[in-house]
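Batch manifest, entry 17 of 40.
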Amino acid sequence: MNFRPIRFAAAVAAAMAAIAMAMFPPVLLGDNPRQLRDEDKVVLLRGLMAEYATSKILIPRSKKALAIEQDGRYSQEQWDAANNKNGVAARAGDLVQFTKVEIKDNQIEFELNGGMGGRKWYHGLEVGMGGSGRSMPVARQGISSPGGTKLVLRFSKEDPPRTVEEVKELLGDVFDFNQRSASEQYMESLTPEVKAAIEEKKAINGMDRDQVTLALGKPVRKVRETKDGIELEDWIYGRPPGKIVFVTFDGNEVVEVREEWAGMGQTAPKVVVPH
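Output type: structure tokens
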């Protein structure tokens, strides 16, 4: 009995199988190169924790996470119901902060402004990775939205976002991560003189009440008086002993700024600005 042809055929088959294995390696279950790895989750957490964004739409308050799908869709009916029940977490144009982030294989949960829990939103801001038991505190910073809520971004487990930029792109219909805050935009709209005065924490003629408040804060007290038929209002800053600043308004405009030292009867010299 001749075994040589059989052995030769077996050797050829084995060689062909080896070539096929080299050209088309088997795809093992769970070996998806796009699947989120632990190191990917760490990168996402570092890039998303404490991140600020401007809301493009009205976002309701909700204890249960409101879903945003991978294509940007969300249930308007569910969001309207949450808004009717709990009120507004952020209006279009409000600045919000991501104060808790939890990443899973097919979704990322976010809390905005500390969520809707019983604690105040600015207490215990944290960021954690699903199931790790570890979290990181986040410092409070300026927020313009009225409340907190919880959202969840859902995506395919086979094609998850792997970078912070990809996550932000998926959230692009709801949040603008590039737009400046309302306060930054307001500061940029001011004249150079008013902007400089606010930065130097002083009041000047021509300012309005909001600008004086930005520069000096709330006054110690306010006094109204009528001179020559015109009703004026003085905002008084400082307490004796020491410098007292009087900011006089005619309507909503500063018409005089005066500094005195309590008990000394001395007025600060006026500064003449050359034309």
